[in-house]
């Protein structure tokens, strides 16, 4: 079961990197339109320290997003967005694509 989750997460990650890469290139190359960068805080739950570290890495490796702080006390990530037009959609996508499968692989209390 975990092997299926690993492959599913890897596929989601690769698709998100490709999709975000194209969206970021379009945002930058589009004439006359300047992106409005911003910051968004995303709370996380149910992840081990390893899971949180992997979540931060996956977000940072996805074009247009960079984790700039992980607050373990608040269980919160501070994420820089190249385009801050819809931060709620970015957070929802991160939860669906990365956080949920990582929670299955690296649940809180499991420091593997």
From TrEMBL:
This is Multisubunit Na+/H+ antiporter MnhE subunit. The keyword NAD does not apply. InterPro entries: Cation_antiport_E (IPR002758). It is a multi-pass membrane protein. One of its GO terms (cellular component) is plasma membrane. Belongs to the CPA3 antiporters (TC 2.A.63) subunit E family. GO terms for molecular function: monoatomic cation transmembrane transporter activity. It comes from Rehaibacterium terrae. Its main location: membrane.
């Amino acid at each position: 079961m975990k092997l299926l989750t690993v492959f599913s997460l890897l596929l989601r990650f690769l698709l998100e990197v490709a999709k975000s890469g194209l969206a970021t290139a379009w945002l930058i190359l589009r004439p006359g339109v300047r992106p409005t960068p911003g910051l968004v805080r995303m709370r996380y739950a149910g992840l081990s320290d390893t899971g949180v570290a992997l979540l931060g890495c996956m977000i940072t490796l996805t074009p247009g997003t960079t984790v700039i702080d992980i607050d373990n006390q608040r269980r919160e990530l501070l994420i820089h967005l190249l385009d801050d037009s819809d931060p709620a959609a970015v957070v929802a996508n991160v939860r669906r694509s990365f956080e949920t499968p990582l929670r299955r692989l690296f649940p809180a209390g499991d420091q593997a």
